[in-house]
Amino acid sequence: MTHYIIRRFLLLVPTLFGITLLTFLLIRLSPTNAALIKGGGGEGGGKAMTAEQREQIVKFYGLDKPPLVAYGNWVGKAMRGDLGNSFADHRPVADKILERLPLTISITGSALILSYFLAIPLGVIAAIKRGQVVDRTISFVVFVLYSIPSFAAALLLILFVAGGDYLNLLPMYGINSINASEMSLFPWLWDRILHMILPVVCLTYASLASISRYARVSMLEALSQDFVRTARAKGLRERVVILRHALRNALIPLITIFALELPVLIGGAIIIESIFTLPGMGQLMFQSLDSWDEPVIMGITVLAAVVTLLSYLVADILYVIVDPRISYE
Amino acid sequence: MNSISLSQETYTQRLWRHFHADKFALNGLRIVILLFIVAALAPFLANSHALIRVADGHVSFPIFLSLEPIEWRFLLYVPLAGLVYFFRHRFIAHPGIFILAVIGFIAAVEIFLALTHPINDPTNDRDRPASFKLLPPIPYSPIESTPDQFSPPTWKHLCGTDSTGRDIAARMLHGARTSLSIGFVAQSIALTIGIALGGLAGYYRSWLDIGICRFIEVMDCFPPLLFILVAISLFESQNNMFYIMAVIGLTSWTGVARLVRGEFLRLSSLPFTLAAKAIGANDFRIIVRHLLPNALGPILVAGTFGVASAILIESSLSFLGFGMQAPTPSWGDILSDARRYIDFAWWLAFFPGLAILITIMSYNFVGEGLRDAVDPRLKMK
Amino acid sequence: MTMPLLQVENLGIHFGPTVDPVKAVDGISFSMQAGETLAVVGESGSGKSVTALALTRLLASPPARYVSGSIAFEGRDVLQLREGELRSLRGKQIAYIFQEPGSSLNPVFTIGYQIREAIELHRPEVRDVTAEIVHALDTVGIRNPASRLGDYPHQLSGGMQQRVMIAMALACQPKLLVADEPTTALDVTIQKQIMDLLKDLKRTSNMSILLITHNFGLVAGFADRVVVMFRGKIVETGPTAQVLQNPQHPYTKALIECVPKLGQKQHRLKVIDYAGIQ
Predict the structure, then answer these.
(1) Between β-strands C65-73 and C76-77, what pairing exists: parallel, antiparallel or unpaired?
(2) B71 located within any domain
């Protein structure tokens, strides 16, 4: 097991190299920075920056140095957690990201967990009732959910249930009410939960749709296996046959799906956080793009890629752990 | 069904028979075709200029004078695609003549577009007196402001108006062009790159395969929307449709590449490929004549789903203010407008949201139907 | 004459459309006495496996339709039983072993667990279940059984997997063991070991065995009686020796000739000539 994990970690190195190289190329090839590399003030390259900001970028990304040296320096700094300073407030990018990370992790995490909890029963029921009205209804609803753009859903949900001229059940914006600081723990927690409902719902439903489709196919596959017949031939209850024998097998491929959903969720979080004005990483990204805060943009991009890479790794290792057929060595 | 007629069926006929039996897929295809027709005819369906106007004894066709190049392209190329499809059997019989004719037609259109300029006439024909005028069903232009601001849906403005009194129905009809063309072109770019790289990796294997696979892995680590946002804002400050198409295409080819690689790996070890090699066919011939046609089904399926996701990405971009921006009408842009007036203007969110939903769902139904037809064993329904 | 253990009467099972259905089993009748070993022989598609599965209604309906007849096990008609009664029949009274031991065992559970499940379900009176599992594995000739309880099916060879299947079937001391092509997926040497094991079990217990096979070679020296099935119908039945030495039906003759015999020169393998039958 340890051998496998070590080997799998070593395989990360070339991909990590690729990720940093690609980001580095993006930085150097952007018209603004390309103009800075050529020397001169970088005017006419596109993005409006102050002279001070230009100087900062040249220094941090080594735009005045040969590409190889610049890449080495930049990766070295990034490895030590130094992603440069933000244009906006001159604070280290790493700090800015870290303080916003918990919120993003909590909403994408709850969305992921919630979608698994809802999607697997849906997929299993659809598979058991294959071809029947229940299956067709679930499949159709899931298909519609899958095709609704999350931002349109978010807007309509805000419009109809969160204030405005219609129902006013849930708060519209932010992570807490204005007077949250005066609340005691439980009202504060309740207030936070109310604020989280809409963003999490908007982030959840699309993942829910795709995971439940996977779950259905995976369950159908498991139900068609010979061992299901063996379990029935033993005289086990149908519930036991399905929930223990078939589902255990169907869950194995589903475990890895979370790694595929994560990049989609990160993209979704950018939109959802900006709609609900939640101070998470997505909103930071959006603000930085708006005001062209290059160090922050690049920091988030690299971080998101590395997180995705790590989630692929976790998925692979989990797969080996849950599936007894795959040997560790 | 008797087995004799089945055995004489070609692959395409079998595909079509399966596809045709799937009601969802067939209706999805009908809606997609309808959307393309609507997009092509948008200037005639929603325009402040008259189709025909008779005044002072003169007959004029004001709409034609105001058509933008992209409107001409849609208007002429969509029927061209229909014609090519209609005469496809003769096309296969005389490919040379037909390809020349098509290229000639496109060249003529492009030269015409390069030489003419649309007349930008800010007036409208609704109020202008005339002895006879035929107005389009929605007599508003997408970029035209009217005094009715924030009108909810009424008979006058079917889908309401926005903050500057622009007619939402008109903007939606014209916006269909943006979504459909970006989805189509971006996915064509992605397919080209994906087939090329996936094909190379799957056919030549060895170090080329290792390199390309690593590249795919790296690309897949970047969350798509985030990557596209960065790429767009790094390189471009003004909005440009072709630029957005290129960025979406350049970032969404990995799925196709994986698929084509897998298919080529599988197909290139099958007897018919070995037989082709044995009789001395060169690599190009084997790839184009033997491997590609056999991998075409799955590629088509992936391409269809890809168009749906490209449309979703495009509308997300416009929504976030990074894609096509006002005054160019696009569904995402109307939605981003809706965000500012979220208290009451439900129509600003509802109609474009519904349009995106229907388009994506239709493409997904077509994709699902195709997948079931390509491989009936995987049938989901 | 005592009541037979199993009495199948005019059983008909159809698949597909109601008009012009596929008649997988087309009105067959046979019976088995307690302790008797019966072989059902026929090629694939002859309906023998469908018959085997139908004995405890393991064949899901739909798609299968039980259109006629009865299956009386100890006098009770299986086709009339309720779901709960069926479950106490399966595994407890009638146990199965299948063709592919590799896919018939659940890959994510240990073999110990899979046998335990059967014992706990049907023999709640057993105190020391683990000892019982070890005993069952020992009976089927698995060496050092206590150490293998935690093994997953994929860690065993095909022959061992089939022994586990047999142990699982025997663990509840069924009255009838249905062996559906138990050796088809195995190597020839393993085939012999498994058949020898089944012969031993037959000798040491009073269990009836219903052997489903396409191979007449397995039947000789094992089954007391033979039923030959062809296209959903029984074409011949009788004591094994009689059928083997003096087959009446041309299909039976053809099947017997398909078995290669040692010490006999054959220029080519026999192929069944269907035109000559019926």
Answers:
(1) antiparallel
(2) no
Per domain, the residue ranges of chain A are: 13-79, 97-322
C118-160 pLDDT, tens digit per residue, is 998 888 888 888 998 998 898 888 888 888 888 999 888 888 8
Is any Cβ of chain A less than 8 angstroms from the Cβ of B226?
yes
- In chain C, the residue whose alpha carbon lies closest to the alpha carbon of A223 is C106
The phi, psi pair for B75, rounded to 5°, reads -65, -35
- CA A309/CA B332 separation, integer angstroms: 30
The answer to whether the bond into C153 is cis (omega within 30° of 0) is no
Structure tokens at B169: 């129905």
Does the residue B364 lie in any domain?
yes
Q: What CA–CA distance (Å, rounded) separates A185 from A38? A: 57
Query: A262 to chain B: which residues are within 8 Å by CB?
Result: 223
| pLDDT, tens digit (0-9, with 9 covering 90-100), for C255-268 | 887 776 656 665 66
Strands B58-60 and B52-55: antiparallel
| Contact across the interface for A267 and B344, Cβ inside 8 Å | no
Give the whole-angstrom CA distance, residue B259 versus residue B198: 7
Contacts of A12 in chain B (CB under 8 A): none
Q: What is the assigned CATH class of domain A97-322?
A: mainly alpha
Reported as a pLDDT band with limits 50, 70 and 90, residue B2 is very low
C65-73, strands of its sheet edge to edge: C22-32, C6-15, C65-73, C76-77
CATH of the domain at B355: 1.10.3720.10
Residue A155: list chain B partners with CB under 8 A: 335, 338-339, 342, 349, 353
Could you give the CA distance from residue B159 to residue B304 in angstroms, rounded to a whole number? 29
More confident residue, A50 or B201: B201
Q: Verify whether the Cβ–Cβ distance B217 to A159 is below 8 Å.
A: no
At B152-179, the pLDDT tens digits run: 888 888 888 888 878 888 889 988 988 8
Residue B222: is its pLDDT beyond 50? yes
- The residue range of the domain holding B194 is 168-374
Locate the DSSP E strands across C143-207. 176-180
Angle of helix A93-128 relative to helix A294-322, nearest 10 degrees, comes to: 40
The counts of H helices and E strands in chain A are 14, 0
d(C-alpha C255, C-alpha C215), whole Å? 8
User: What is the pLDDT at residue C267?
Assistant: 60
Mean pLDDT, rounded, for C56-80: 84
CA distance C156 to A163: 64
Across chain A, what does the average pLDDT equal? 84
Q: Do chain B and chain C touch with ≥3 beta carbon pairs under 8 Å? A: no
Question: Residue A38: is its pLDDT beyond 80?
Answer: no
Q: Which residue in the block uniquely carries the two structure tokens 């500057």?
A: B164
3-state helix, strand, coil in chain B (%, to 5): 70, 5, 25
Residues of A in contact with B315 (CB under 8 A): 149, 151
Would you say residue B37 lies in a domain?
no
> CB contacts < 8 Å between A and C, how many?
69
Rounded Cα–Cα distance for residues A113 and B111 (Å): 57
Token code pair at residue B50: 């008259």
Whole-Å CA distances, C103 to A244, B318, C140, C255:
16, 52, 19, 28
Do A306 and A20 contact (CB within 8 A), yes or no?
no
Helix residue ranges per DSSP H, B94-133: 95-115
Residue B225 has pLDDT above 50, yes or no: yes
Looking up tokens 């105190």, which residue turns up?
C127
**Set of chain B residues whose Cβ sits within 8 Å of the Cβ of A151:** 315-316, 319, 335
| Chain C interface disruption, residue of A226, A234, A239, A323, most C CBs within 10 A | A234
> What ipTM does the predicted assembly reach?
0.86
What 3-state class would DSSP assign to A50? Answer: coil
Q: Is residue B247 part of a domain?
A: yes
Q: What's the domain count of chain B? A: 1
Residue B189 has pLDDT above 90, yes or no: yes
